[in-house]
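batch_manifest entry 22 of 60
target: STM4013/SEN3800 family hydrolase
source organism: Streptomyces kunmingensis
requested by: lab member K.T.
priority: normal
notes from requester: please return tokens only, no post-processing; we will run our own comparison against the previous entry in this batch. if the run fails, retry once and flag.
--- input ---
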Amino acid sequence: MNEVVGRDDLLLLTLDTLRHDVAVELAAAGRIPHLARHLPGGAWEKRHAPGSFTYASHQAMFAGFLPTPATPGPHPRLFAARFAGSETTAGRTYVFDTPDLVSGLAAAGYRTVCVGGVGFFNRQGALGNVLPGLFQESHWEPEFGVASPTSFEMQVARAERVVAELPHERKLFLFVNAAALHQPNWFHLPGGARASGDTRETHAAALEYIDRHVGRLFAAMSARRRCFAIVCSDHGTTYGDDGYTGHRLGHEAVWTVPYAHFFLEPTA
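--- output ---
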């Protein structure tokens, strides 16, 4: 990462609330071709989330604690704040001297931009300002939020505008929190109805919806130079699993998340 930072643009795309099992099933069935073509070996990596809901998980990720490989560690991290005694900071780790990765990348000359999705990024109150407030530039509007059936394509359009307006020589760290998978998601399933509610099937349909538009995001981020992309879930969620519904709880479907990182080669 010490060679990547300062040379490449960076993208962190969190597919908010995406379950690992659903992501794996859809990749194996060929239902998310635009994402799958970038996954190493065409498959998601199984990892453990650093938190059980959006706020906690993103606070951890912005501190350098991305989802942890679901195998015995320690596992060296891509990014880490300088911290004496850290067992997951290795020679290949990019170490920053600020409290969080966002300001660390800003100090390294990156333009840091947030395109928010769920309510923790809506800047409509003190709590909704904490996470987007880490960035030099942040964007949120109701059309990006959980109740919008077109949320991700609207977020991608804003990201395309951000890239187009940035001077070519300026490096970019773009963070996108995709809200489409979060409840409510019933409207992403053809024939879905509010009365039927959200289910594992509507969750899968929401991931297919994201896949139909993610290629535009990847194309924008590789239009200027090579981009190092991290695509992952911040936590999963439950749909009646063992009697549980939702997240912010300690269930396997919440703690286990899909993860991938890869390079997007420049198209210009």
